[in-house]
Amino acid sequence: MFSIDSILHQALGNRSKAITILHPSSTPRSITQAHLSVPNTVFIGVIHDPSNAFRLVEHGPSAEEDQSAVNAFRKLWGDKAELRRFKDGRILQSVVWDVKTAEEKTHVPAMIIQHVLQHHYGLETEAVTTWQSGYDAVLRMSPAVSKVLVDSGVPVGFKAAVGAFDGIVKAIKGLEGELPLALVQASPVSEMLRYTSVFGPVALTSSVAASLAPNARYMPSMEMTLQFERSSRWPDDLKAIQKMKLAFFEHIATCLMTSIKGLSAAVVVGDGVNESEILDKAWLDIVTPEGWAFSARIWHNREAMLLDRVLDASSKARKMPHVAVKTDENKNGKEYQEALEAKETYMRRFIHAPRHHRAIAALCHSHSAFAGTIRLVKRWFASHWLLRGHISEEAVEILCASFFVQGKAESARVPGSKERGFALVVEFLKEWKWEEGLFVPLYAGDSQILEDEEVSAGSSKHFTGSGAWRMKTELDGEGRVWTGRGPDVVVANRVKALAKATWDCMQRMETGVFDIKVSSQTLRTCRMILTRLRLCSCIRRTTMTLSSSWTDLSFLGTSRTWMQIQICSHAEESMPTSRLRRTLFGLGLTQFNCFSRIYRYVFVTE
């Protein structure tokens, strides 16, 4: 055992902060059994040093050094050691780990352990397994879908999505002579553009979609915000501003389709839920020839001032009852509520969302485990039908960020891998007293945002809601921006119970039967928590009520008999259409591909 420990310390070096070797205790035996029943499994635990753990080249001694050092290096690494010349002219003994993707790069420490155990102790690669592969599997597309995408050669991955975003922004800026106002800034506000979506972004052309199953053809769009130069030509009426945005969208769509062959663009008017004429509810859908989809909105900073006028005027009218105000009381109340909702949407969509995006993207670049932690936690919430419908993506990202931005004093607790990050989040949720709230210094490193007068002036002033969680940041002192609409008390308590059940399941990892996807204990726990699904009034079949306006039900065409759909017009009586759409479509691209699998794990039948 000491020999294994010594070899691992030599091989990993400064890649790890700590290494431990655990051997399960002997199992109970009959009194007639002479010898102990000793398990033949050894567990190796490694805490990574993120700054060194995932480097691809191990540098050894140079050719001019003492031959004993060269021999020791070659003895440690075996046939993986080789003499290489580097760009700076050095000739060194080296070990290079061949990886093709960023995901594979996180497996370098495990690859080192597998190699040295095979080289020194003759253990085959199959005999050394890691739980990391199980976590990776829940973040991948199903094999059937992956095969179609790989064979078709469509661009996939976060880098490809960011490149597509840069391309469409460049195309819009190229229309400067054809647009009445020049584009000043285009801000991404999509999880797929900040590396935190559960599944990697995928371009989906019509030809590739035809090769996929109906439940795999959903193509989520990446949201972006367009800010044009200031001009006095913008109207001073809120309704007219929304009409002006429609005219902008129509002109941009026409110009883009003319300049880029194969690009399609369409103006979307209204979301089917809100009827307010002063609310920003129109956007431009853009699908590139490569198959990337974007949703663009226009940010006009004068909207905030006009909305404040309506809110301030209504407030003054109510505070002076002795003054006769010639206005219909009911109409005034409706105007105030519409202005309040419009201001809340404006602040969240155009002020907080871009800044949140930049802060999360910066953390993803500075901490290698951060993006993976978020993706696993989102996957966990989505598997229990909580993501987006009850808990926003941004709230999950802030929750995960709390373990990466707590300062130098707690640097030892910063996760070095996504698996440890996920475990820390689950451990926190099972004990969190959410009534006390959570403060996360998300913008501590960005003084420019903290000094922004527009943000500080309306950080949480017009945000309402009755969400149980309160995740506060420097720009959201009350914690209402991303958690004001949920989760409620019932869901918050359910999250705590699910976290406890998940933690108990993870504590059984050393039994050797742990499966990140599903285990018998997890199924029993789900059966207890969901009271055998009678909370959903379903056993074996789930009946859901949908709005008749939602006609895209093709994804259910081939997904077994887990769900029965009833289309009627009174969906709002049981569940708002918008929430139901977010709950289903919010599962993400490949969670739809694995729809039956999610049902099998979450909706446990008798």
Describe the structure.
It is a single chain. By secondary structure, the chain is of the alpha/beta class. Among the domains are: 2-137, no CATH class; 143-300, Beta Polymerase, domain 2; 530-606, no CATH class. The chain is 41% helix and 13% strand. The protein has 21 helices and 14 strands. The protein has helices at residues 2-12, 67-77, 102-105, 108-121, 132-137, 143-152, 158-173, 206-209, 238-259, 302-319, 329-366, 370-383, 393-401, 418-431, 447-450, 453-457, 489-506, 520-529, 577-585, 589-593, 595-602, and strands spanning 16-22, 43-48, 57-62, 82-85, 91-96, 183-188, 222-228, 264-269, 282-287, 293-299, 438-439, 471-472, 542-547, 563-568. The strands form five sheets. It has a five-stranded mixed β-sheet, sandwiched between helices. A hairpin with a 5-residue loop joins strand 4 and strand 5 (91-96). The protein is globular, with a radius of gyration of 28 Å. The model is unreliable at 519-606 (pLDDT under 50).
CATH architecture classification of the domain at 143-300: 2-Layer Sandwich
**What is the CATH class name of the domain at 143-300?**
Alpha Beta
CATH-assigned fold name of the domain at 143-300: Beta Polymerase, domain 2
As a whole number of angstroms, the C-alpha radius of gyration is 28 Å
In which range does the helix fraction lie? 40-55%
Coarse structural class:
alpha/beta
Catalogue the unreliable spans.
519-606
